[in-house]
Please model this.
Amino acid sequence: MKKYSIIIPTYNNCEKYLKPCIESIIQYTDMADVELIVSANGCTDNTKQYLFYLSTVVPNLKAVWNDEPVGFAKATNEGIKLASANRIILLNNDTLLLERDKNQWLKMLDTGDISGVWSQYSHITKRRFAVFFCVMIDRKVFDTIGLLNEEYGIGGCEDIEFCAKAQDAGFKIDLNFDDGSFPIYHAAEGTVLDPELVQNWAQVFAQNEAKLASKYAA
Model:
């Protein structure tokens, strides 16, 4: 069993995001130490061909394929279900690892129940949460509180809810890198702000905030 499972949900933009992301993982990671899980949903570009290529160069590759877009949470959950490691990394496809020694980024993240590289404050839950563009979560957290809530559809707010549920269950969230010291670049909302992939993102996010508020607002 590998110590780490890296899960990347992806929806098109193979050349722009997915390839550079995975190339940076390969460059700064001993791939014999990890399994890489790509969960593709609704991809109509060359993602499938790229996954075939990856299967020849990445020793521990697993792939999930959905013909239709299923949203961030569901695509991520399907990757989590395939993960064999106890330490699970959720990584957006619009990220790039930056130069460090091999596996240093994994060691930096490997600190607790949940460890994120960036946090924000939720005015709904009244607490900080790890933004899920790059986060490491111990399997026992999923075993205790379940997977990401898929009712948020395309995405947005599932990370806020997950972190709140984890804290309520007694798990610790380590937020050590809000100073920008973690070696990663994030394009930020690379998929949902692409009008060819997602329409009316602001409206979708507002609806998801309303769903979250119905559970946590006083």
